[in-house]
C-alpha cells in the first residue's frame, strides 16, 4: 500500500496528490475510480505528467490521506530536459537528457545569448536584492557580485569583450602588437588587485618612504593626472601575488623589455647593458607629443612609430615621497628584481632618443605597462 498527502481544492472531488519526492498530480475523485480525464501536474511546472494513477479508491476521508490499492497503480514517466548542472537551463527534475542544454557566456546574465543593457540591469538587480550568486555575472571572476562587475560589464557592452583589455575597475585600454608581443598602449590605472582587494593609497610623503607593501599614488594627488598618465605603483604592488594586471596579462620581465627593444632595432649587446642604450628606440616607444617637453626624444623622425605610446608620467621618489618629472620622464617597472632592495626598470627622457635600463629602490612609484600572456 502507498500513502500520499493530499490537499482538497474547492469541492470535495478535486485533490492534489503529492509523493515523497515532491511530485504533485491534480485529479478528480469519483466514488469508485480515479478519473483519467484530469491527469495534469500542477506543481512544480514540469512539461510532462510525472505520475498517473488508476484503480478503486479504498479510503477517502477528505483530510490528509488517501489510500490507493497498490503501488502497481502508480506509473513514473520519464521527464525529458537538460540534466547538466552547469547549463543555464538545468532541470533538476529531468531524468533523461534531451540535448536541450545551453550555456551562457560570461556577462550574459539573463542568458539570452546577447550582451547588452538588459544584462547590466539584471546584474544590478541581483546585487541590489542580494540575490543568488551567478558565475555569468561575476565578470571579473573574483568570486563576488559587486559594483566592480557592473563597471566591467558596462565597458564590455560599450566596447566589446572580444580580446578587450579591461582591468578589474572596468578601465578599458588600447593595445598594440609589437612583434610577437601584445602590449597595453596606455599606463595602468587600476586601484584594485586582480582579486578585487583594494591597493592602498593616499600615503603622506613620510609614510610612502617607509612602505614595505604594495601601494599606488596619483601624481600630485590630482585625479586628472591619473586619467591621462595612469597611477604610480611601488614595486611591492608589482610583486604582489594577487596580481596587478588583469587576467591574461602580466607585468613584463626585464628580459621581455629587452625583446621589445631588440625588435625595434636595439642590438642584443646593447639590450643586455645598463644605462642609456641603443639609438632611437626611445623615440619609437614614446607617444603623444603634446605631453612631452621639447627635446631629442620627440624631434626624432621615428617618434611614436611603434604605437607603444609611452607617456612622461614622472615618478614618486622613495626617500622623500616627492613627485618629480611629469612631462619630462617616463619610468616603467619590470617584474624582475636586481637585488633584495632594487628592481629593474626602463626610462624614457625628453632629452634622449634612446632607452635607459637600470635598477632602483622598490619603494619608488613608477608607471606600469601590462604585457599579454
Q: How does this model look, in words?
A:
This protein has about 375 residues and is an alpha+beta fold. The chain folds into 3 domains: about 1-75, no CATH class; about 115-160, no CATH class; about 170-370, no CATH class. About 15% of the residues lie in helices and about 25% in strands. The chain contains 9 helices and 23 strands. It has helices at about 115-130, 145-160, 205-210, 225-230, 235-240, 255-265, 270, 280-285, 295-300, and strands spanning about 1-10, 15-20, 25-30, 50-55, 55-60, 65-70, 75, 80, 95, 165, 170-175, 175-180, 180-185, 215, 230-235, 250, 275, 315, 325, 330-335, 340-350, 355-360, 370. The strands form 9 sheets. Strands 3-2-1-6-5 form a 5-stranded antiparallel sheet, with no helix packed on it. It starts with a strand and ends with a strand. About 35% of the residues are buried. Mean pLDDT is about 80; it is low at about 1-15 and about 30-75.
Amino acid at each position: 500500500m502507498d500513502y500520499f498527502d493530499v490537499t482538497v481544492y474547492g469541492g470535495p472531488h478535486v485533490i492534489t496528490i503529492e509523493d515523497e519526492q515532491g511530485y504533485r498530480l491534480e485529479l478528480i475523485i469519483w466514488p469508485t475510480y480515479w478519473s483519467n480525464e484530469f491527469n495534469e501536474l500542477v506543481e512544480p511546472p514540469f512539461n510532462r505528467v510525472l505520475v498517473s494513477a488508476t484503480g478503486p479508491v479504498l479510503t477517502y476521508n477528505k483530510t490528509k490521506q488517501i489510500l490507493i490499492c497498490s503501488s502497481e497503480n502508480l506509473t513514473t514517466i520519464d521527464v525529458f530536459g537538460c540534466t547538466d548542472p552547469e547549463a543555464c537551463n538545468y532541470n533538476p527534475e529531468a531524468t533523461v537528457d534531451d540535448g536541450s542544454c545551453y550555456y551562457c557566456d560570461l556577462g550574459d546574465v539573463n542568458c539570452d545569448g546577447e550582451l547588452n543593457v538588459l544584462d547590466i540591469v539584471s546584474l544590478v538587480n541581483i546585487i541590489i536584492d542580494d540575490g543568488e550568486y551567478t558565475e555569468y555575472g561575476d565578470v571579473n571572476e573574483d568570486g563576488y557580485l559587486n559594483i566592480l562587475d557592473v563597471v566591467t560589464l558596462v565597458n564590455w557592452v560599450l566596447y566589446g569583450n572580444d580580446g578587450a583589455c579591461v582591468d578589474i575597475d572596468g578601465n578599458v585600454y588600447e593595445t598594440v602588437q609589437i612583434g610577437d608581443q601584445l602590449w597595453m598602449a596606455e599606463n595602468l590605472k587600476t586601484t584594485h588587485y586582480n582579486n578585487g582587494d583594494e591597493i592602498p593609497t593616499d600615503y603622506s610623503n613620510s609614510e610612502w618612504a617607509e612602505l614595505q607593501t604594495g601601494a599606488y599614488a596619483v601624481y600630485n594627488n590630482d585625479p586628472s593626472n591619473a586619467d591621462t598618465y595612469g597611477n604610480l605603483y611601488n614595486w611591492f604592488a608589482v610583486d604582489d601575488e594577487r596580481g596587478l594586471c588583469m587576467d591574461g596579462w602580466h607585468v613584463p620581465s626585464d628580459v621581455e623589455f629587452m625583446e621589445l627593444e631588440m625588435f625595434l632595432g636595439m642590438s642584443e649587446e646593447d639590450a643586455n647593458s645598463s644605462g642609456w642604450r641603443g639609438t632611437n628606440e626611445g623615440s619609437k616607444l614614446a607617444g603623444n607629443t603634446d605631453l612631452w617637453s621639447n627635446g631629442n626624444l620627440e624631434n626624432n623622425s621615428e617618434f611614436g612609430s611603434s604605437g607603444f605610446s609611452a607617456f612622461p608620467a614622472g615618478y614618486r621618489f622613495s626617500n622623500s615621497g616627492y613627485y618629480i618629472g611629469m612631462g619630462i620622464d617616463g619610468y616603467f617597472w619590470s617584474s624582475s628584481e636586481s637585488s633584495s632592495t632594487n628592481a629593474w626598470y626602463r626610462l624614457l627622457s625628453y632629452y634622449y632618443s634612446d632607452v635607459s635600463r637600470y635598477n632602483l629602490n622598490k619603494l619608488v612609484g613608477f608607471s606600469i605597462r601590462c604585457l599579454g600572456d
